[in-house]
Amino acid sequence: MSNTDNPLLDFTGLPRFCDVRPEHVAPALDRLLEENRRSRESLLAGHGHYTWDDFVQPIEDMNERLNRVWSVVAHLNAVMDNEALRAAYNEGVVRVTDYYTELQQDERLYSGYQSVAKSAQFSAYSQAQRKLVENRLRDFRLFGAELPADKKRRFGEVQSELAVLQARFEQNVLDATQGWALYLDDEADLAGLPEAARTLAREEAAREGRSGWKLTLRAPSYQAFMSYADHRELRQRMYEAYVTRASDQGPNAGRWDNGPLMLRLLALRHEEARLLGFSHYAEYALQKRMVKSVEQVLGFLRELAERARPVAVRELEELAAFAREQHGLKRLEAWDIPYYSEKLRQARYGFSQEDLRPYFPAKRVVSGMFEVVRRLYGVHIVSVDNPDVWHPDVRFYEIRDESGAVRGRCYMDLYARAHKRGGAWMDECISRKRTAAGVQHPVAFLVCNFSPSMDGRPALLTHEEVITLFHEFGHGLHHLLTTVDYPGVAGLNGVAWDAVELPSQFMENWCWEREALDLIAAHWQTGQKLPESLFEKLIASKNFQAGMQFVRQLEFALFDMLLHSANEPPTAVHDIQQLLEEVRREVAVVFPPTFNRFQNSFTHIFSGGYAAGYYSYKWAEVLSADAFSKFEENGIFDRRTGLEFLHHVLEPGGSREPMELFVAFRGREPTVDALLRHTGLVA
Ligand code: ZN
Questions:
Q1: What is the pLDDT of residues 372-397, one digit of tens each?
Q2: 507 CA from centroid of ligand 1 (Å)
Q3: Catalytic residues
């Protein structure tokens, strides 16, 4: 196959999604890996005195082409899962991992980078170039470039196996999510469920040629059922199916069980760290973070727990009392919590999440969000026709600056559907890079799982979904608005993982401001703005159960950090369960039933990038709340403050240390005050 025959190897423009087939994956990798290996050998055959132009840049270019191909494959695998693509992905992920291991362990390359760093020109390179070289030198060490041959080989084997198992963990969760559904024939069983959720359930059933309703474990269906369905036993059945996905418990016990995978993953991560001389995986992972020690992370989380737990205890007591007094419920079970929480919210604030939905038609929310971004950073975002997408739901946008010059482009795939991974995320499609022909503009994928349009009615979002969209778009802006010309440190690349959530969580703040809501909210039928009474109720309820949500995040973060900082990895799944229970006794207020196997679908830490890094959400929340407090002082649409955030945080991306960037923007180091104030944990 020639380059032009294989759409994955066409680098002339945007990916050709309509042409890409699973059978293109292996030949594209064959070709690219072979070319890259050959180019590397010819680079290394040189004189040994390396510079940016004749050494670093060509290597960056090779990596960038491989990343471009692989990002398309990984993206399609996440949003359009099928057997052939999954097989091609699983085979490819090992080859790509092996390739990078080989690259990172190559002593000749390592000394090439060392010679660049020691060269006389080094100090004349830009900040971004120097940071990139320093990062690469660090990564050589962290990939075992300094290890003896046998340990190096073993390290590589560990990397390969980790890549396979992490992919399988995720696939098991997807299969388990799709592998169970609740079919209902009696409409009485749907009592309490909002119209939107009923329509979705009817359409899901109709798609299979059935009458009645099909409730699934995908977010729009599951969350609505748990929050609104009056039928307690059915809620219990949904809950059991959901929290036992990919485990040894529940209706599909033993099928897709991630238990053994977790043990193996943890053992391999431990071995990886030990090979490099670290005591455990967490210590290894923290080498590339803002936070420098496990003790610092644990201290940070426990200090927050001390403040949040008493609030959470009180909230849970109030909920139990409400369910008992108003609804005669004797014992509040895990499958009752979302349901009575929603009832309590309605009783206390006089509105339901569903009341807001008509004011958030997805199209309006998206265009309003773009207007928020225009006011802050002066960039214009417009919808552009692009028929070459992977699904008809996908929309495509272009970002231009005030002079009309393109800054970046973005695909949005917003709605839940079968064969699509759950959750919401932003991913890189193409990175910003300077080439001989000019600047190559960044392109992003933005993926969510919102309730789709139904019954001729447009897609209407809940306020929580609006927040999710802003969050992911904040990641998107980090990638799209970077002005760094070297992909390795452009946008999110090279940013310490515990600082990555700063631009995303920062954007969420605008979802709570009247002035911003007026841009994003308009009734889908009347065009009416969010009524003042409803706005006041929304704001009054902002910190509803904030303590309970806070301690839940702390529970996940502590569990993750303790799991990855043990001196020996667990040897039985029971040990993992036991650790989780200990953490719950320390910080949680809700104790799930014994069959709960939440950990078996904790993809963030077992297949995503958050291993020993879940604390990042809270850590970066301190930064994002403090950053936003500057807007509270100067006005939420203050252009000058907006441009400062753009120039000091978004544009430099990974080219500087996150703390330097934060201080440049805020004028001082971060404090936890704004976060505590925003979440109502202090007055
Ligand atoms: Zn995020």
A1: 999 999 999 999 999 999 999 999 99
A2: 11
A3: 472
